Amino acid sequence: MSYCVNCGVELAPSEKSCPLCKVPVQNPASPWVEPQSTPYPKRVESIIKRVDRRYGALLAGVGLVVPVLCSLLIDILMTHTLTWSGYVTGACLCLFVWVLLPMLVKGRHSLYLYMLYDELALQLYLCWICFVTVGIPAYLTLVLPLGLLPYAFANGFVPIVCSKKLTNTLYVPAIAAFMAAVLCVLIELTIDLNNTPNFEPMWSLIAAVPCIVIGVMLILIEGKKNLKDKIHRRLFI
User: Given a cut of 70, is residue 39 above it in pLDDT?
Assistant: First the structure.
């Protein structure tokens, strides 16, 4: 039986180092003996590193079919026609295009192409809602422009995010803040012009002014390297 030369703890023959203070065991009179059983396997099992996204997307797609069929069946049994089930069906189709379609398509495709698919799915869903509620004119004059504005800004923001010169800088969130401010004003402008011929900004300014202030602050912080490094150290990033 051996004892640790540093802390005096009793050591088992299978110990190569002290379990308490980690000092190596050196006892020529008591050589190391391999334990008969270990809490872990000697052979490391290989783990699949790549997840089969297409298979998971197919299972999720089957899961989306269930609420669609249930809502259609219940709607027909209760109202003898298709009414509210269209909302469920349209929402599930949008989820399929937004989330599952990129996982099912083989190969790498342009981000702009996926964004176009997402926008088309959203616009078709909104068009159908307007068709059964307020009418197509309301969709063309109000809903369509409101849906296209974020899409246009998103397409303009993608090159900024992908720019190598702006990577890992605070200029990217600063530009995003400025674009959000402009987007708020344009949204209120579209709504006001659809209702009245005059434009008087109200809530958009309440949202835009903080965005502009945040954008200016981010630019100032990016320009001061010492301040930026201090913030990184304090936030552990």
Answer: no
